[in-house]
Amino acid sequence: GAVVSQHPSWVICKSGTSVKIECRSLDFQATTMFWYRQFPKQSLMLMATSNEGSKATYEQGVEKDKFLINHASLTLSTLTVTSAHPEDSSFYICSASSGFTDTQYFGPGTRLTVL
Amino acid sequence: AQSVTQLDSQVPVFEEAPVELRCNYSSSVSVYLFWYVQYPNQGLQLLLKYLSGSTLVKGINGFEAEFNKSQTSFHLRKPSVHISDTAEYFCAVVNNAGKSTFGDGTTLTVKP
Questions:
Q1: Distance between CA B39 and CA A74 in Å, rounded?
Q2: Which of B46, B50, B101, B109 to mutate to test the interface with A (most CBs of A within 10 A)?
Q3: Contact residues, chain A, for B43 at CB < 8 Å
Q4: Which of A67, B4, B33, B81 could form a disulfide with B50 if both were Cys (CB 3.0 to 4.6 A apart)?
Q5: Mind listing the pLDDT tens digit for each residue in A78-110?
């Protein structure tokens, strides 16, 4: 299947700083990318959906000014956690697909720890 | 609105035994159905999917699932499990607008 990478795989930052996470589709053009958050022993919570060249669509309850998503090309989407706080510590997973209802290919995830 | 219920949070089973992981869903529109597997500290890997056609879907690693529209279920099965199948399994639905909803997951533990 298609390969999606995330970078970094693990990051620790101080409270109040911003962190950028990259999601890349390595061997296909991802018109749609999704960002999820997963708490320990819990399911994935969809944060936002982004289409290349368009503004991201955020799920209810997700602060768009805090979680900035950019999908500038068909192979790259970024999630920036601005002014991170300890409660933002989580496992962030991206997925990419060629269309809304096509199979999603998931990245390996990024574990964010905010001190 | 749509929802997914994975009926078993944990399923312990002995190696080479059969296993069924249950998934029920609710939706007011047609949906597509997926099963994913997640190993510790990793992303999700697609096991199989149902989009249309035959209700019995075969996936990777010997898994299969059957779509039952009347019972709104999409149970995952494997006739003989291996130690390496120990992982978290997620059932998911996607509607025509691309909105994904995941179940809470089932932890499959295969014992020797």
A1: 27
A2: B46
A3: 4, 6, 93, 95, 106-109
A4: B33
A5: 999 999 999 999 999 999 988 766 788 899 999
